Amino acid sequence: PAPAPLWVSRPPLVLGSSSVPRPYLSATMSGGYLNLNGDEPQLRAQKQQAVHSARWALGCFAAVVAAFTVGRQTAPSVNIGAPVQMPADAPWSPWVPQLFQPVLQPAYTNEPLAKSAVRRFDMYLMTQAAFATPAVKTLNVEQWLAPDFLYETVGFATSRTPRGWCESGEEDQFRRTFNESVFSQMLFLGTDDMASTTSYGNVFWGSDLLGVPAPNNWVYFRVADFYAARKISPVAAQLYYNFMIIDFADLFLRVGRPVLPPAALPEGLVLTAAANDGVPAPLSVVAKEQDAATALKVAKAALHEDWIGSGDGAGTKQWRSHWHSNLTFYGPGGIGRAHGVEQYRQHVLEPFRAAFDDRSLDTKIFGCEGNYCGAFGELSGRHVGPWLGLEASGKILAIRFAIQWRVVDGLVQEGWALFDIPAVFKQLDLDFFAMAAAAVPPIHS
User: Fold this and answer.
1) How far apart are CA 253 and CA 219, in angstroms?
2) What's the pLDDT at 69?
3) Which of 139, 235, 383, 441 is deepest in the core (most CB within 10 A)?
4) Quick check: 211 and 433 in contact, CB under 8 A?
């Protein structure tokens, strides 16, 4: 059969005012040459159209080259290698970038000042900080962190000043250990001078954490933060203190390195509030409609009577009086999740009260937004009985805590609590993280 023609027209591609045909090659080869068979006049017309298109493309290219040449000749000279001249009082960064300014939903614009500062700070950390140098990160976080900012945590080193936190604190170590992470806030409450969050992270644990070998896998852990703030203007506050605590007992259990004995209650699952108050709860526009004064009174009673009270006689009636019969208490790894007053009494309060005599309380941060409250501080007591597998030592032990409550109709319906368990081990000359690294079997009382 006769070879097919070389050019077969398709619908034209319109570029500006010109129509450029989009041909495709459909020729046969014979001895290395193209056989051009077909209608002679049609082939000649198609060749002319192709030449016209090529001339049009070359003309466009020449125009671009001319414009580029003129631009180079008229542009001001720049010495690429010259150092950037900065004022004598410029920040320590070699250049000053544009600072991150988060765009907030309208519902967030009138939040309490400390909560607003944390929201902006968190938005920067979650969307920008991973791509910034320490210098750029410092310049940004100084918008929300006070010059005397103090950061304390569990396991990681304490850091001071925004620059110290960015360069050598937990932030730097955390990002090297968990270089891929997604955090979901469950609780977020605040006032003008304090704020608190509870979140969970889904992270890829890819390098050693405090001496514990990495599983090189995605893991889950729970974390809580407490912040103290001071007002710097009628519409803004800066954070001067942050305490962060990870539920390490649960995290190490999840990766097969348990340090504590199994809890009597279910472990692991922690949920946000069982209410339509937003996620994280509460939305400030919703919380404004709630009775914060009553919530504060109830939460203070829960803190004092549960953890400092005797639990005997009148004390029992007192702690029962502020808990809802349908309560849920989310404890850390080693304690677990309690449903109902009896589970909470039997498996949370009684073991703690039996283990520690002469208990005292030092509250460092306490506040309520609507019917959500949070407290951070330190419980102390003489260690006279087993707790979390640790036999009585007779020592006075200090236990940092982070607790949050949701109050409904004058009763606590939900509670969330974390304790600085690694620090308790340290006071007993035990290394919680070394035990996890060595996969030491759980300590049983």
Assistant:
1) 11
2) 52
3) 139
4) yes
CA 47 – CA 43 distance, rounded (Å) = 6
**Which two tokens mark 228?**
């103290």
Q: Report how far residue 267's alpha carbon sits from residue 261's, in angstroms, rounded to the nearest whole number.
A: 12
DSSP 350-408: HHHHHHEEEEEEEEEEEEEETTEEEEEEEEEEEE-S-BTTBPP---EEEEEEEEEEEEE
Length of the chain: 445
Q: Can you give the pLDDT at residue 3? A: 43
pLDDT of 170-223, one tens digit each? 777 787 888 888 899 999 999 999 999 999 999 999 999 999 999 999 999 999
Q: So what's the pLDDT on residue 22? A: 36
Instruction: Give start and end residues of each alpha helix (H) in 88-222.
Output: 113-127, 134-141, 161-168, 170-177
- What b/e sequence results for 273-282 when a residue is b if at least 16 CB atoms lie within 10 Å of its CB, and e otherwise? bebebbebbb
- Three-state DSSP class for 51? helix
Q: How far apart are CA 233 and CA 388, in angstroms?
A: 46
Q: Give the per-residue pLDDT at 133.
A: 85
Condensed to tens digits (0 to 9), the pLDDT of residues 117-141 reads 999 999 998 888 878 888 899 999 9
Q: Is 138 helix (H, G, I), strand (E, B) or coil?
A: helix
Crossing angle of helices 161-168 and 170-177, rounded to 10°? 20
Contact call for residues 400 and 412 (beta carbons, < 8 A): no
Pull the structure tokens for residue 252: 């190490």
Distance CA 401, CA 229 (A): 19
User: Which residue, 128, 108, 149, is CA-closest to 241?
Assistant: 149
Tokens of 334: 């080693």
Is residue 414 packed enough to be buried (19+ CB in 10 Å), middle (13-18) or exposed (0-12)? Answer: buried
If 0-12 CB within 10 Å is exposed, 13-18 middle and 19+ buried, where does residue 108 land? middle
336: left (phi over 0), alpha (psi -120 to 50) or beta: left
Q: What is the helix (H) or strand (E) element at residue 328, kind and residue range? A: strand 323-330
Residue where the block lists tokens 């049009």: 56
pLDDT at 80 (0 to 100): 32
